[in-house]
Description:
Blueprint: E1 2-5, E2 10-16, E3 26-32, E4 42-43, E5 48-55, E6 58-62, E7 65-69, E8 74-77, E9 83-87, E10 93-100, H1 105-117, H2 130-140, E11 145-146, H3 151-158, H4 161-166
Amino acid sequence: MSIENPITKERIDFRVTGAQTAGRYTEADLYVGPGGYAAAEHIHPLQEERFEIRKGVLRLRVAGMERELVPGDVALVQPGTPHVWSNGGDDDLHMILRFTPALNSEEFFQSYFGLVAAGKSNAKGMITNPLQLAVLMEEFSDFIVPTKPPRWLQRAVAALAPIAKRLGYRVHPEPEAPKESGRADQAS
């Protein structure tokens, strides 16, 4: 399965899913175009994230320390550690990501990339509708937590999830309804 984020220039091809490893890990090829990036600094509260660089240059900031990784380099980010990354070169970046344990990693990326592709983000690829955010934050808080805004504000937004769901907000974007043809079929 391949999914893309047109704004952040990421494409993910899952190699191994959590279902295939009994939840032990998820592994994917991540391809990032020049200028591509992770949308925001974040933490994975319960997971280790492993970056193995295959092609290109990864600019990785972990707990405030920035470094560049090149093919053959591997970096591990421990659970709860703030980090953000970007393509640090002029060419495509290819890396293998592994999340241990898997949790709902694949579902997060499918949902987030789907919302961006459906036009539900700002120009930087951030979901800004507080009701949509509430549903995402409730569903994926074990997998990913942004470092900004402050945690108290994130919790306040997440508390809106039941209201958001009653209003029709979902984790995955709804497919567009078919447009009417303009004809009315009438019985004679």
